[in-house]
From TrEMBL:
Keywords: Aminotransferase, Pyridoxal phosphate, Transferase. PANTHER family: CYSTEINE DESULFURASE (PTHR43586), PYRIDOXAL PHOSPHATE (PLP)-DEPENDENT ASPARTATE AMINOTRANSFERASE SUPERFAMILY (PTHR43586:SF21). The keyword Transmembrane does not apply. This is Aminotransferase class V-fold PLP-dependent enzyme. One of its GO terms (molecular function) is transaminase activity. Pfam families: Aminotran_5 (PF00266). Residues 26-402 form the Aminotransferase class V domain.
């Protein structure tokens, strides 16, 4: 496994050359990452040269449509799915809401959906509202001490065979423990249920191999994966074809249009190909052997990023674990979690994040739309949590600066 070349990585992000940001350590990546250069370049080009109706029979329109198709095809190939199984929407929250409306018409009263209290509200609230339509909502609860989502606790919820969907996160945006998605999917499928995985907090740490995970639906946000503000949804073709069309009736035969009721954002979809550009550039720079298969390239980059981030975040986890004036949420082992670290303090967290900003540490505090897991773990919502989230462009020196700043502020 090659070692991540930090100088090269940071050269791909224009934000690091901005003077006002140069002396700031950015630890709010879970709220939205810096955009990579290829995404910015493609967005700029589209607005300058392609801002017409895509697919029109003239050059600018044809090129605009080609770039939108390229984004869909290349990202889908990285994820191991067919191009038409990937669709774009304005956000993951919006995509989930549209899916829930499709399931609302698809499910029968008395059938059940399993949700968790580990989720961000985007993958919980829309499904829970279907309880008003006669759908039974079953909650798969976390361990209130650790935040762990135990697959053994799912089994009794599936036992009667009435569950039609299990919605759960790849990892929580405050607990951060990486759930065994493939195992959970296999359990759900064996009980006759489809699965919807919220990958928003996982995908920034390596585009997942959705085919290997086996899930029916996988959702994540491009703006947290170095891209534009779009929600990306993978949905298995046979499930998508069974669900009622939520788009214009005349687009119902096109899978990637079935769950897009609003007009797509042409420029941002086209710019999403820059995400594939960036991950491919990482592969070319770091791996000696060229790899023709996009899925294999993506997995190799994923593994390299994960190895780097595990080593990167462990000193912070060790430091926080040793303090007796805070509660670290989620595992203490970096290999078991994403590098998103939330702590409950003995005081309100928001003023602490403001003090850290004075030391050049940019992070934030609050509930991060994770009201359910924080409540389940007994966290005081008025205090909230302090969240510090890294990604592969974060350096070990920045982590050391964060630890030093925490020492002074706490």
């Amino acid at each position: 496994m090659p070692k991540l070349d930090h100088a090269y990585v940071r050269s791909q992000f224009p934000a690091f050359s901005v003077p006002a940001l140069a002396d700031k350590a950015f630890f709010e990546n879970a709220g939205g990452s810096y955009a990579c250069g290829p995404v910015i370049d493609r967005l700029n080009r589209f607005y300058r040269e392609r801002k017409v109706q895509p697919y029109a029979p003239y050059e600018a329109g044809r090129l605009g449509g080609d770039e939108m198709d390229e984004a869909r095809a290349r990202l889908a190939a990285m994820m191991g799915i067919a191009a038409d199984e990937l669709s774009f929407g304005p956000s993951t929250t919006a995509n989930t809401y549209v899916l829930a409306q499709a399931f609302r018409h698809h499910l029968k009263p008395g059938e059940a959906i399993v949700v968790t209290d580990q989720d961000h509200e985007a993958n919980s609230g829309p499904w829970r509202r279907l309880g008003d339509e006669g759908i039974e909502i079953r909650e798969w609860k976390i361990d209130p001490d650790t935040g762990h989502l135990d697959p053994e606790w799912l089994k009794p919820l599936l036992a009667d065979g009435n569950v039609r969907l299990v919605a759960f996160p790849h990892c929580s945006n405050v607990v951060a423990e990486i759930n065994p998605v493939a195992d959970i999917v296999a359990m759900a499928h064996a009980a006759g249920a489809a699965t919807c995985v919220d990958g928003v907090s996982y995908a920034p740490h390596g585009i997942p191999d959705v085919a290997a995970l086996g899930t029916d639906i996988y959702l994540f946000s491009a703006y947290k994966v170095y891209g534009p503000h779009q929600g990306i949804m993978a949905i298995r073709r046979d499930l998508g074809a069974r669900l009622p069309n939520q788009g214009h009736w005349f687009n119902g035969e096109t899978l990637y249009k079935r769950f897009t009721p609003a007009g797509p954002d042409h420029a941002q979809i086209a710019a999403s190909a820059g995400m594939a550009d960036y991950f491919d550039a990482l592969h070319t720079h770091h791996f000696i052997r060229a790899e023709a298969d996009p899925r294999a390239r993506g997995q190799q980059v994923h593994d390299m990023i994960r190895a780097h981030e595990i080593a990167l975040i462990q000193p912070l986890l060790d430091y926080l674990s040793a303090r007796n004036d805070l509660r670290l949420l989620g595992p203490r082992d970096g290999a078991r979690r994403a590098p998103t670290v939330a702590v409950a303090l003995d005081r309100p967290a928001e003023p602490v994040s403001a003090e850290l900003a004075k030391h050049g540490i940019n992070c934030w505090a609050g509930d991060f739309y994770a009201v359910r897991p924080l409540t389940a773990m007994g966290v005081d919502l008025d205090r909230g949590v302090l969240r510090m989230s890294a990604t592969h462009y974060t350096t070990s020196d920045e982590v050391a600066r964060l630890i030093g700043a925490l020492d002074r502020v706490l």
